[in-house]
Structure formats: structure tokens, C-alpha cells
Design a protein that fits this description.
The protein has helices spanning about 10-20, 25-50, 60-75, 100-125, 180-200; strands spanning about 55, 80-85, 90-95, 135-150, 150-165. The protein is of the alpha+beta class and about 200 residues long.
Length: about 200
């Protein structure tokens, strides 16, 4: 999704320009650009998960699991798989959920310039037409709720992108989501999770 809305005529012009510029970059160049972006975004992703992806709460594991299940549902995620006994949960939804349109624009504003800068040495001016493309992607949230002892639970979250349709651009798909999207999604899930715990009177 781009940061601005384009008129139909401008969209056709941008599409034609994209095709023309794409012809100037080889498949090898495009793959190198995406690989460079993946390396940068992977480092950010792993750092983000280490900092924001795991929390411990003074609640029973069963209560934490129920609250997390409810939180993901209220954020528009569909529960695809769950095992309450083990404490694992997987939820999915079309991108950019759990972010809304405004939060996705915030992601693009923050991370798109950097992505283009990383890609530019490999594909030249084609980098200026690269955008974050939620179409054809699903976001999958994986959660684990473990007993941390003493009546506490450790909750961990990870996220992945899964392709459901080929990209509309001539660039290969990235493997890692934009760093700002990961941060916003994690913060949003934790807030909703804590709201569910408070609603059930499990947190003050």
C-alpha cells in the first residue's frame, strides 16, 4: 500500500513506468535487492522479538491462554490452530492485520525510504517504485503460553508473512515484514491482551 492515493490515470502511468524500469533491471539484480532488504529486516525483526516478543505476567497459564485467544480475535485475526494443553496458538488474517489502514500508512512512512535506499544500489531507479504490498499476503501470528512458575506465565509472540497470491509488481517477495509494522503489531497485541486480562479481573 502506498502512502498516497493515486488517481486511476496516475496509477496507469506508474504501472507503465514500473514495467519500463523493471526491464532495465535483471532478475539477478532484483533478487540481490530483495536479499539485501531481507538481511536488514531480519536483523531488525530478531532484535524486535528479543525486546518486545516475550513477556511474563502474574497470571495462570490457562487464564493467559484464554485472554490471548480473545485478544487476537478482537484484532481481526482468525484462530487457525490451537492446543491449550501445550499452550500454542496460531492466528491468521489478510495483511496488514492486525494493523489498520492508518497504522499501515505509518509503517510505510517510516520504513519505505530505508527499503528503497537498500535496494537502490542493485536496481537503480526501479527502487523508487518499490512499495510495501499487503495484497496477496496473510499475516500469521504464532503464540506460546508457558508456565513460568509461581503462578506466572511467559507469553511469546512471533509473526510471519505467507503469500496467497503472486505480487503485482515485478519484484520478488520479501521474507520479513517491515520493522515498524512488527513493532506496532506487537504493541497492539500486548495492549489488547492486557485489556482482556483486566476485563477478566486477572490484572489490576
Amino acid at each position: 500500500m502506498s502512502t498516497t492515493r493515486l488517481s486511476p490515470g496516475r496509477r496507469r502511468w506508474v504501472c507503465a513506468l514500473s514495467i519500463a524500469l523493471a526491464a532495465c533491471a535483471s532478475d539477478q539484480d532484483k533478487s540481490a535487492a530483495v536479499a539485501a532488504v531481507n538481511r536488514a529486516f531480519q536483523a531488525d525483526y530478531e532484535s524486535m522479538l528479543a525486546d518486545k516478543g516475550v513477556r511474563t505476567y502474574k497470571v495462570r497459564r490457562t487464564d493467559a491462554f484464554v485472554a490471548l485467544h480473545a485478544a487476537l480475535g478482537k484484532l481481526g485475526m482468525r484462530i487457525a490452530d490451537q492446543d491449550p494443553d501445550i499452550g500454542t496458538l496460531a492466528a491468521e488474517a489478510p495483511a496488514p492485520r492486525p494493523l489498520n489502514a492508518q497504522e499501515w500508512r505509518q509503517t510505510a512512512d517510516a520504513d519505505l525510504p530505508r527499503m528503497r535506499e537498500i535496494a537502490r544500489p542493485h536496481v537503480g531507479m526501479l527502487a523508487e517504485l518499490i512499495r510495501f504490498e499487503p495484497e496477496g499476503l496473510e499475516i500469521v501470528i504464532y503464540a506460546t503460553v508457558l508456565d513460568a512458575g509461581g503462578g506466572s506465565s511467559e507469553v511469546s509472540l512471533t509473526t510471519r508473512m505467507r503469500e496467497t497470491a503472486p505480487p503485482r509488481t515485478n519484484m520478488p517477495r520479501r521474507e520479513y515484514p517491515p520493522p515498524t509494522a512488527v513493532r506496532l503489531a506487537l504493541d497492539k497485541i500486548w495492549r489488547q491482551f492486557e485489556q482482556e486480562l483486566r476485563a477478566a479481573r486477572k490484572l489490576p
